[in-house]
């Protein structure tokens, strides 16, 4: 694993030498986020040794290096999911590569289904904690001490400092922010009515098919984490409960400018 990470890092650094301060992971429908960046270099995943290749619509599949909020950043335009057939280790491989490239903070976004009855489509939810019982932990197997400890503490996976800063940024711009617990599931099916109810009963406010494994790997390596969900559909409702991926992408696109502003200001304050 370490050899693969270092080979990927060496390839990237041979093309682009800037050391990014922060990493950004863009969720479904959030690919236009990078239009607000001053882009310096783009590298397709297919060119990077050992990198998986994204197979999902709404994920473009490249590392984008540049400047955002006056700071050097690297953005993943397209992420990897367990449901695509990748192992948990492959899902988090890019997170590990970004850490070895020099990032100390990671900002993660996703599209999620709302389960909190106070939520509506288009809301932004700051993730304050997650429930990972329904996903495979990416740290299973022999621990690599060079990456992190055998038993990482998960009492504060999402930085309270960054959460409070995000709230202040949103308040200044009159952006409404929700806050809640994210439940990670494998997908690729959207949840049944009974599953939505179960996840809500155990404490979930939103549910999605990404993020949790990435956050676990980030915490394992000592990165500071901030994550936000765009509520792209409401799972708990009495009427017809059909959800399409197209609807998810459209809702994410409409909420993107607000999410972009919060991420940009958070990075500017690092």
The structural class is alpha/beta
Task: Kindly report how far apart the N and C termini lie.
Answer: 30 Å
Backbone shape = globular
- Which ranges are low-confidence, i.e. pLDDT below 50, for 5 or more consecutive residues? none
Radius of gyration: 17 Å
Helical stretch count? Answer: 6
Quaternary state of the chains: single chain
Strand order of the largest sheet: 5-8-7-6-9
Q: Secondary-structure element sequence? A: HEEEEHEEHEHEHEH
Explained architecture:
By secondary structure, the protein is an alpha/beta fold. Helices cover 31% and strands 24% of the residues. It has helices spanning 2-15, 88-101, 160-172, 193-201, 212-220, 245-268; strands at 22-26, 38-44, 62-68, 71-77, 105-114, 124-131, 177-184, 206-208, 224-234. The protein has a five-stranded mixed β-barrel with strand order 5-8-7-6-9, surrounded by four helices. The longest helix has 24 residues, at 245-268. It starts with a helix and ends with a helix. The model has no long low-confidence stretch (mean pLDDT 92).
